[in-house]
Every structure is written in C-alpha cells, then in structure tokens.
Amino acid sequence: MVAIEYMEDAAKQEILEAIGVFAESVDQRFESIDKRFESIDKRFDQIDKRFESIDRRFDLVDKRFDATDRKIDNVKGDLVHLLRKEDEKMNTLISVLAKKSVINPKETREILAVRPFPSGRPVL
C-alpha cells in the first residue's frame, strides 16, 4: 500500500475528487431512498386513516348490536313472563278439571308433561 505522504499533490487531488464524486453519488442515492420512504410513510398514513375509519364503523356496529341484544333480552324477558302467566292459567285449569273429574289423573300427568315450564305443584 502506498502511503499518502509520498504521493504527488495531483494524485492526492485526483483521489479526493474521486471520493467527492463517490460521496455525492451516495448522497443522491440516500436522497432517493429518503423520498421513497416518505412516499411509503404517506401510504401508511393513508392506510392508518382507513383503519381508523373502519374502527369507527365497527364501533358503531358494536353499539347497534349491543342495543339490539338489550332489546332482544327485554323481549325475551317479556315473553317468558307472559308464558309463565299462561302456564299458570293452564295449570290452574288442569287442576280444576281434574278436581271435577273431567280428566283423570293419567290425563292430568300427560297434559302437564308437555308444558313449557314444569309445574311445581304435585300431580293429583
């Protein structure tokens, strides 16, 4: 390897110019890469905005489902309440018919066996 101190000034200058040209080329490449990254960053920003929009839409859908679930639960509760009342009426009617011997105990058990809610009363 040749030591720089023994080189002529013109050779040194030529090497320095070559290094300068190389450095300029590297800088231009980095600038080009930086521009590409900026473009990619902008695209990611747009994608982020789209995801935020989608997230807001999902939040709205979740709220609607929650409201619908509450309404369904309310209707279900109302229906169960009405069915229990009707079941109680039916049990009372069966009991009255059994007491008056309109239906026999076997028929009473068969009718009560198909009820939507099991009767807590003993079968006659």
Plain-language structure description:
With 124 residues, the protein is an all-alpha fold. The protein has one domain (9-113). It has 2 helices and no strands. The chain has helices at residues 9-99, 105-113. Helix 1 (9-99) packs antiparallel against helix 2. The radius of gyration is 44 Å and the shape is rod-shaped. The model has no long low-confidence stretch (mean pLDDT 87).
Q: How is this structure best summarized?
A:
The protein is mostly helical and 124 residues long. It is built from two helices and no strands.
State the main characteristics.
0% strand, 81% helix, 124 residues, 2 helices
How many runs of DSSP E, i.e. beta strands?
0
- Report low-confidence residues grouped into runs of 5 or more: none
Radius of gyration: 44 Å
Q: Supply the helix-strand structural class.
A: mainly alpha
Mean pLDDT: 87
Distance between the termini: 117 Å
* Integer count of domains: 1
Shape: rod-shaped
Helix content: over 70%
Q: SSE order, as H and E?
A: HH
- How many helix segments? 2
Q: What percentage of amino acids are in beta strands?
A: under 5%
**Largest beta-sheet details:** none
